[in-house]
Amino acid sequence: MNRTDRLYALVEELRAVAPRPRSASWLADHFEVSVRTVERDISALQESGVPIWAEAGRTGGYCLDKARTLPPVNLTAGEAVAMAVALRGLEGTPFQATAGTALRKLVAAMHGDDAAAARDLAARVLFLGNAARTPPVPRQVAGAVEARRVLRIAYVDRDGATTTREIEPLGYVGLAARWYLLAWCRRRDAVRAFRTDRITSVSVTAEVPSPRLLRREDLDIPAGPGYQLSLT
Q: How far is residue 13's CA from residue 6's CA, in Å, rounded to a whole number?
């Protein structure tokens, strides 16, 4: 069994017995690998976002949160590759890292043969040229709105002057060439839009700010074509 198939099988084995644990030694015997290999595989699954945790003790082992994982997904190879191509368009946005995690979860949830067919098809898709992309968004900025923490940033304004500010992240605005972080700026005591490529350093504080309503009328953004993202 290759590693990809084993990772899929590990998840399915833990799902089948959840919420009971499986020990590393039991899994090693079952999949005919070493305990160290099982530990490396479990670590890789955890890093990809699979909700696996370890229970200590004589009867402990690895457990899977069954409620937060998907059963095998009946996607065709073409559907999976279409999603991969669409997610590739998120490069340079605040959602680049989570797009990669979502894609790995999707492939891990597919039937083994379908996942293999999707990988084979993906290997036949070639992108040529260096299409213009937005500058990469700093990792702490990309997760700022979801994390709901006050950020301390160093910011270079349009005149090249650098200031240190404490901000309360509120949302994002995406344009063709760049992304902005919308935030309440404590220095200005108002909502401001910060170009993410002008944020030169970021530190996440422990402070959780009081909730603020983000209203379009608070933003200095001209009316025109645009839309607000919806999951419905």
A: 10
Q: Could you tell me the residue range of the domain that residue 112 belongs to? A: 77-122
Name the percent of the chain lying above pLDDT 70. 85
Residues making up the chain, counted from first to last: 232
Total domains in the fold of the chain: 3
Q: What is the CATH number of the domain that holds 22?
A: 1.10.10.10
- Say if 169 falls within a structural domain: yes
User: Which residues have a Cβ under 8 Å from the Cβ of 203 and sit 6 or more positions away?
Assistant: 140, 151, 152, 153
Range from 30-34, 175-179, 192-196 carrying the lowest mean pLDDT: 175-179
Report H helices in the chain: 3-17, 24-31, 35-47, 77-88, 96-109, 112-122, 139-142, 144-147
How sure is the predictor about 201, in pLDDT bands with cuts at 50, 70 and 90?
very high
Residue 207 placed within a domain: yes
Please state, in angstroms and rounded to a whole number, the distance separating the CA atoms of residues 4 and 45: 11
Q: Which two tokens stand for residue 211?
A: 């909730």
Return the biggest CA–CA distance within the chain. Answer: 64
Which residues, in sequence order, are CB contacts of 48 under 8 Å at separation 6+? Answer: 101, 104, 105, 108
Convert the pLDDT of each residue in 104-150 to its tens digit: 878 877 877 888 888 888 877 766 555 556 677 888 888 888 888 99
Strand partners for 167 = 151, 185
* 131 belongs to a structural domain: no
Kindly state whether residues 143 and 211 are assigned to the same domain: yes
Are 162 and 209 part of one and the same domain?
Answer: yes
Same domain? For 192 and 168 the reply is yes
